[in-house]
Amino acid sequence: MVKNFMLHSLLSKKSPPTEQPTLWLAPMEGVIDFIMREFLTNFGGIDHCMTEFIRVVDQPISDSVFFRDVPELQTQGKTAAGVSVTVQLLGSDANWLSQNANRAVELGAKDIDLNFGCPAKTVNRHDGGATLLKSPDRLYQITSEVRKKLPAHIPLSAKMRLGYENPEDCLENAAALAAGGVSHLTVHCRTKKQMYAPSADWTWLKKIRQKIQIPLIANGDIFSVADFKKCQDLTECDSFMIGRGALQDPLLFVKIKGLVEEDAQISSKSIQDFFRANCAVSPHFAQARTKQWLKNMTGKSEKMSAAFEKLKVITEPANFEQELQLLFEKSLQG
Fold it and tell me: Which CATH number fits domain 19-256: 3.20.20.70, 2.130.10.150, 1.10.1060.10, 3.30.1510.10?
């Protein structure tokens, strides 16, 4: 695994500000898996991670699935960099959510999050994610039962969107979740219907804070230090969750914390290491995931954009790895 980006950014390292925000790496299905969590937390700046959601239906989740999706359960619930990892569950059956949450705790989970924000049609069609925002009563019933059955020392949190269609529903939904016993609440500041457009409306967070007393985590559309500062000013939050912005700029967390200059970039060696780490799954999987990550970075880095243009047409993993090696050697020369 990559250790950090110190060799290529050492000269830009700065002293951190005295007061730092708490930064979370968002759960993103099919993207923020164990390997990506490992890499991004090694770059620094991330205080907490949250897993991709684990779907709960009407049966126990096997231990093998828990360990496959959250191998950090075997390392005190932390990444190799020492960053805590919250286990996120998605479902609508309070009994099965409770049983599986407790099993996750028995296996090593230090805290549990409930997903009420996923906008995917397949998830919503099966009574999960953001569709539950149509019913504050159900939000309360689910969270209160899970909270009641979890050990008292295990924090229970939730992640939601503003609502299913109407953003004003966030006030009643947040109140229901707080009454149900969640210790903190992450709010993606769009409705389910809005998906990822228009821009996230962070102004709702102040309105939510007037209704509930638990800590809030602001989420949505933080792609730069300027975005972060605007969100911080509008919401007055001290905790923030970043997903797509972290894929576009893996150093965004350390930039927000003032640890590196805003023009710092990760090295070609980091991309090479990422590919090799994913080869543990399969070479073709590694190739696909590395292309996916490079494509995400094209909007923020000319270097990564040029690399993606060269690599996107390669179909054989062996050739892909050779080209990555050439890019790394070229970066050392120049």
Answer: 3.20.20.70
Report DSSP state, residue 78: B
pTM above threshold 0.90:
yes
Q: Which residues 6+ apart lie within 8 Å of 83 measured at CB? A: 25, 37, 41, 46, 47, 48, 49
DSSP 36: H
Domain parsing of the chain, residue ranges: 19-256, 268-333
pLDDT of residue 306 exceeding 50, the answer is: yes
* Partners of residue 178 on adjacent β-strands: none
Q: What span, in angstroms and rounded, lies between the C-alpha atoms of 159 and 177?
A: 10
Residue 15 CA to residue 265 CA, distance in Å, equals 18
Catalytic residue numbers, as ranges: 118
Tokens 């990555």: give the residue. 324
Cα gap 229→102, rounded to integer Å: 38
pLDDT-derived band of residue 1, with 50, 70 and 90 as boundaries?
A: very low
Pairwise CA distance, residues 265 & 301, whole Å: 8
Query: CA torsion sign, 232 to 234 to 236 to 238?
Result: negative
| β partners of residue 22 | 239
Count of C-beta atoms within a 10 Å radius of residue 208: 22
Distance of CA 310 to the CA centre of its chain: 28
Pairing of strands 84-90, 22-25: unpaired
315-327: average pLDDT: 94
